[in-house]
């Protein structure tokens, strides 16, 4: 296998770990070492992300919650119809923000099914039992996995519309060039009449952005470190967490918020199950996440490139965040 010369026998691994193994080895073999942020979300990582959403420094969730709380009726009126629809929540997590709309939708006696979709099975199972208690009358069809693998399982009964939610600036994890590809791929699951609600974190004071990814309580650092812990646990690795530093930096031109794990010394790490050895030099960085920030003009360009029609734009009073309703 040319692409993954260091993966000796990943076929011995459970199926869901094979992709993880490939991505880890491929990323750590690159000249500029990288790990994909999609692997943050094991049970521990999902819990840590819930904590992040409550942090004073992490303004994103508060801003989007404000939008949903004060403008829920306008948002719902923008996509609600007499026709039945699936409300698909991409990367639903604990769905705290979506629930604000779900409650109103249930009051309106709308004919819809809630389809939470998440890469974390743990988060999804917890959401499912929580919804059974909090909103017992809500029809729920949870889907676990990668966005597109899970979307492929999505059924469309005739006459059923799809309304896709992609909230919380989840879209920010893609570089601009990939967003276009992502939106095009997403549109392959959609038809005329379907709609999209996407949450974008807006460009703002760069210090505020940086602080959101390097919070005073160190929860974001723990979230980043958890990726190494997960790799140790999954592949019998010996990453020594104390030999790494969390570092986060914002580029106000590209709008890219980057997070790294930086090796504080020369070290060798072994992932026993993968027969993989990694050498890190002192102060060498492993890139672990990019979270892009957008201007409203950039959002319009993306929409035009993906052939989406902007219907409504909702922002919070600080203009920190935007939820945009598009139609296909
Ligand atoms: C879940 C991808 C929206 O990028 O802001 C939070 C993840 N990373 N703190 C983000 C995250 C560090 C978050 N998203």
Overview of this structure, please?
With 328 residues, this protein is of the alpha/beta class. It contains 10 helices and 12 strands. It has helices spanning 15-29, 43-53, 59-79, 96-107, 121-134, 147-151, 176-187, 206-212, 219-235, 296-305, and strands spanning 85-90, 112-118, 143-144, 161-166, 195-201, 244-251, 256-263, 267-271, 276-280, 285-292, 309-315, 321-327. The strands form 3 sheets. Strands 3-2-1-4-5-12-11 form a 7-stranded mixed beta sheet, sandwiched between helices. Helix 5 (121-134) links the parallel strand 2 and strand 3. The protein is globular. The site of N,N,N-trimethyl-histidine (AVJ) has 12 residues, from helix 9 and strand 10. Residues 52, 60, 168-170, 172-173, 213, 220, 223, 289, 291 line the site of N,N,N-trimethyl-histidine (AVJ).
